[in-house]
Design a protein that fits this description.
By secondary structure, the chain is mainly alpha-helical. It contains 10 helices and no strands.
Length: about 160
């Protein structure tokens, strides 16, 4: 059952990504160059069960000037101010995710149950260089009541 829901959520993320790209008027090749990935990767993010890394996803959002929260289905309005993609890093994302988990006041077990992952997975986000997939990030942000734009370094709040 969880796999079916994950697939549905992935399809919605892909649909919103395709929508953002179409509305931007930019080409896939431009998006690929801006994100530092291949044209084929951009195509895969939109049509196959392939998800970008979190830092690549943040760069896609910045280039398309669209909110990560919108692409992940957490809010209706999609546009956001453009930022500096060079400031996006996995270290920043990890630090913000760890802070959000710590500041939540919830135990790892409570977070895991609310998100539908294991306690060990939450612990890995805190103590190892492990990062959630986009659909898991969306669920974490909802549970932790934090913006995906903040976690990804797209916004300061």
């Amino acid at each position: 059952m969880k796999k079916k829901n994950e697939s549905a959520e992935l399809r919605q993320i892909q649909k919103r990504l395709r929508q953002a790209l179409a509305e931007s008027g930019k080409k896939q090749t431009e998006l690929a160059a801006a994100a530092g990935v291949s044209y084929k990767s951009i195509s895969a993010y939109q049509c196959r069960n392939v998800l970008p890394s979190l830092d690549t996803f943040a760069k896609l959002c910045l280039y398309l000037e669209v909110s990560a929260d919108f692409l992940l289905g957490s809010k209706e309005i999609g546009h956001t101010a453009a930022g500096d993609p060079s400031l996006i890093s996995m270290a920043l994302i990890q630090a913000r995710l760890r802070a959000a988990i710590s500041d939540s006041g919830m135990t790892y077990k409570e977070i895991a149950q609310a998100v539908g992952i294991t306690y060990q997975t939450v612990s890995s986000y805190m103590h190892k260089n492990v990062f959630p997939a986009l659909d898991t990030l969306a669920a974490l942000c909802r549970v932790l009541d934090v913006s995906a734009d903040f976690i990804l370094g797209i916004s300061r709040i």
